[in-house]
């Protein structure tokens, strides 16, 4: 499972990098077209926010894997042994519940958007919003792996 989880994290980091580049190029071209050519690219107003969402969600997968996600660590840093492991496991299980809810509600949303096209980009919005359930499952896999590893550490320390 380690190789698969590592692949998910690397893939997510690569997609995030591509999204950053695409977002930078999109914004720069929009500024160039508006300020220099006095023309506006209609698709960039819609494309930019989509790329930002993709960047954020794929970045969240990579951050969870690297344990760099947003966390308040004041309590965890003061704990030791089993208590520390238990708090980390409970915290990860809360994140797991959140991403599973995101997946659960993301699937019907994607299905509803299958017949609705984006305004300036001629593709169904479902393709754009499919990132929500996809990255939710990726996050769930990464978190389940982290919980298993933390649980094994906790059991090893007790022996």
Characterization of this structure:
The protein contains 6 helices and no strands. α1 runs antiparallel to α6. The chain has one domain. By secondary structure, it is mainly alpha-helical. The longest helix is centred in the N-terminal third of the chain and has 34 residues, at about 1-35. Helices cover about 80% and strands about 0% of the residues.
What would the keywords be for this entry?
159 residues; mainly alpha; elongated
Considering DSSP H and I runs of 4 or more, what fraction of the residues is helical?
Answer: over 70%
Supply the number of structural domains.
1
The succession of helices and strands, N to C, reads HHHHHH
Q: What is the approximate shape?
A: elongated
Proportion of residues in β-strands: under 5%
User: What count of helical segments does DSSP give?
Assistant: 6
Radius of gyration using CA atoms only? 20 Å
Number of strands: 0
Calculate the terminal CA-CA distance, rounded to whole Å: 25 Å
Q: Regions with pLDDT < 50 over 5+ consecutive residues?
A: none
Average residue pLDDT: 92
What is the makeup of the main sheet?
none
Q: Strand pairing plus helix content: what structural class? A: mainly alpha
């Amino acid at each position: 499972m380690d190789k698969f989880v590592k692949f998910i994290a690397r893939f997510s980091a690569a997609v995030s990098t591509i999204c950053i580049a695409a977002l930078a190029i999109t914004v720069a071209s929009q500024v160039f077209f508006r300020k220099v050519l006095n023309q506006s690219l209609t698709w960039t107003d819609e494309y930019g926010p989509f790329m930002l969402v993709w960047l954020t969600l794929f970045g969240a997968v990579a951050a969870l894997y690297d344990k760099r996600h947003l966390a308040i660590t004041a309590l965890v840093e003061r704990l030791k042994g089993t208590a520390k492991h238990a708090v980390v496991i409970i915290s990860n299980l809360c994140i797991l519940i959140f991403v599973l809810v995101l997946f659960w509600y993301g699937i019907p949303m994607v299905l509803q958007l299958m017949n609705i096209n984006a305004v300036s980009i001629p593709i169904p919005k479902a393709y754009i919003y499919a990132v929500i359930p996809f990255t939710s499952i990726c996050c769930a896999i990464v978190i389940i792996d982290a919980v298993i590893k933390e649980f094994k550490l906790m059991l090893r320390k007790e022996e």
